[in-house]
Specification:
The protein is mainly β and about 150 residues long. It has a single domain, classed as Sandwich (Jelly Rolls). The chain has three helices and twelve strands, in the order E-E-E-E-H-E-E-E-E-E-E-H-E-E-H. The strands form three sheets. Strands 1-2-3-10-5-8 form a six-stranded antiparallel beta sheet, with no helix packed on it. It has a four-stranded antiparallel beta sheet with strand order 4-9-6-7. A two-stranded antiparallel sheet has the order 11-12. The C terminus is likely disordered.
């Protein structure tokens, strides 16, 4: 399988970020663009240790991200390939674009995880694009400010 950024369906579109993602066999593929600084930690609340438990492999096309672990922090900048071990919470700087590959698991995208207990995370929007392996569109959690904006309308 192969695909360009434009080939993958948009699953999250908000002022802060645009995420395009697909599942190819056992691999989750994502093109992510962050227009504003974006701390993913609030989306990880309710997961074990409140951090992402899925490994990720990728390449930073533009910008920079900081990956926080319990015992350290790592910066990954444009032009660098990366491996992010389980047990992390990333922060994306405005202007960051990445392409990322992850094993297809329930923790690939934590806002899809049934173990997430936060009431905010249970309010989800249907994904656009191809159906998941159960024949339905997948469920995604939009960024916090998008949810706040939508709930106040």
């Amino acid at each position: 399988m192969r695909g360009s950024r434009e080939d993958l369906p948009v699953t999250i579109e908000a002022d802060e970020a645009v995420v395009r993602e697909a599942e190819w066999g056992d691999i989750h593929v994502g093109f992510e663009t962050y227009n504003d600084d974006f701390d993913l930690a609030p989306l990880l609340k309710g997961l074990p240790d409140d951090v992402c438990q899925c490994p990720h492999y990728g390449y930073v096309l533009e910008g920079r991200m900081r990956v926080k672990y319990a015992d350290r922090e790592e910066d990954v900048e444009a032009g660098e390939a990366y491996y992010i071990a389980p047990g992390h919470a990333p922060i994306m700087e405005a202007g960051t674009e990445i392409v990322e590959f992850s094993p297809r698991t329930s923790t690939t995208r934590p806002w899809r995880s049934p173990s997430a207990t936060s009431p905010r995370r249970r309010r989800t929007t249907k994904a656009r694009g191809p159906p998941n392996d159960k024949g339905r569109g997948g469920l995604l959690q939009p960024p916090l400010s998008y949810r706040r904006r939508r709930s106040s309308e």
